[in-house]
Amino acid sequence: ETVMTAVSSTTLSGYVSVSAIWNPGSGNGFAGNPGEPFRGGTSAAQDGFAADVVSLGISKPLGENEWAAGYNVQLWLGETSGTLTAPELGAGGVQLKNANIDLRVPVGNGLDVKVGIFDSIIGYESSDYNANPNYTRNYGWGIEPTTHEGVLLSYAVNDIVSVSAGMANTTGITAGGVLGGFAGSQAESQKAYMASIALTAPDSAGFLAGGSLYAGVLNGMAGANTADTTNLYIGATLPTPVEGLAVGVGWDYRLNNGANANSAAGTAGAGWATTLAGYLSYDVTEKVAVHYRIDWAQGSNGSFGYVRGLTASGAVDDEFQNKLLANTITLDYKAWENVISRLELRWDHALDGNKIYGGDATSDADRNDFRVAANFIYQF
After folding, report:
1. Strand 111-119 to strand 271-283: parallel, antiparallel, or no bridges (unpaired)?
2. What is the pLDDT of residue 315?
3. Which of the pair, 327 or 320, is modelled with greater confidence?
4. pLDDT band at 194 (very low <50, low <70, confident <90, very high)
5. Which is nearest to 140 in space by CA: 266, 18, 277?
6. Are 339 and 349 in contact (CB under 8 A)?
7. In sequence order, which ranges of the chain are alpha helices (DSSP H)?
8. I need a labelling partner for 320 at 20 to 30 A (CA). Which of 48, 95, 168, 175 fits?
9. Distances in Å between the alpha carbon of 270 and those of 250, 261, 301, 321, 334?
10. For 91-108, what is the mean pLDDT?
11. pLDDT > 90 in the chain, percent
12. Which of 26-40, 207-221, 243-257, 260-274 has the lowest mean pLDDT?
């Protein structure tokens, strides 16, 4: 009877995301694109079709009793599952995105404890393809951690204020981490620490009711003693007096200190990056919605996946910076039940003047990248 009770409260959920991407005039020598942090640098998605990910989740949510318990397991499979920094379950690109036990302790209004592998507490956009207004992700997602392995405490002070705090092995589980532990966990003095606060506007706030303001901070080792990393995030989502129109904003800042912190090229010293994204979402009808995002990024040389200049000795020149701007507009049409179907236009522009997009053996690269993407997600 105990077994049957546990099984009856367990839910199976997930989604399948597939896409088609066209980069007009991008050439055959495409060697990666700082404008696609949403793909984790996967250049194979240019001018073609992709089975992005299959997400499979098994969970039991927390109940209402004082000593409630639950769990959550989420697996990622697919061509871009490896872009998630989570432990691998073996060859084939299977990622353990979530694996945690949820516990409630009867302290005050109820203290919720999450132990295991869980999603990062910072960021405006989610790793999950079905949880964002746009198909592609913002620049901020590219400098945020995606997954942690540790413990997270969450507490709702009241209907307006909620807080969380936690500790993890590192600021993120690096790709290649294996089930059973992360090799770069280091000593007890080298863990990562995180905290956040969320404010929700009450019903008495008028048209702002339900709007939210969120702030989070994360500090710790980035893994294997490579760098001490600090992430800061502030985001807000607000309704407007116009029915169906909502606005949002997300700001990210990341600072690395230590070896290999400045860029993928591996220079020593400090590296920093900051991003700012603004959002507009409008429900035209019950079935049609339009989402617009403007996205700006700036950081030390190499912080967004490309190096602008080298010194005479061949090292990365820290006098240069990466500067990017992107505009994205997405049309979301609910034609089928349980299906997200959307068409997206995205324009990335290198504000620093560097030609970082496209190019092949016979044509030059460009400061601009244009892409058209069609994305279909079935949710179950």
Report:
1. unpaired
2. 61
3. 327
4. very high
5. 277
6. no
7. 2-8
8. 175
9. 24, 6, 11, 13, 46
10. 86
11. 49
12. 26-40
Identify which has the larger pLDDT, 179 or 130. Answer: 130
Number of Cβ within a 10 Å radius of residue 340: 18
Residue-wise pLDDT for 86-95, tens only, equals 555 544 567 8
Tokens for 334? Answer: 């609910």
Tell me which amino acid residue 37 is. Answer: P
Sign of the CA dihedral running 129, 131, 136, 141: negative
Q: Are 73 and 89 in contact (CB under 8 A)?
A: no
Beta strands in the chain (DSSP E): 11-22, 48-60, 69-77, 95-105, 111-119, 147-156, 161-168, 192-200, 212-221, 228-239, 245-257, 271-283, 288-300, 321-333, 339-350, 368-379
Alpha-carbon gap, residue 340 to 94, rounded angstroms: 23
d(CA 276, CA 138): 9
- Position 360 scores a pLDDT of 54
Q: Distance between CA 41 and CA 44 in Å, rounded?
A: 9
Question: pLDDT tier at 46 (50, 70, 90 boundaries)?
Answer: low
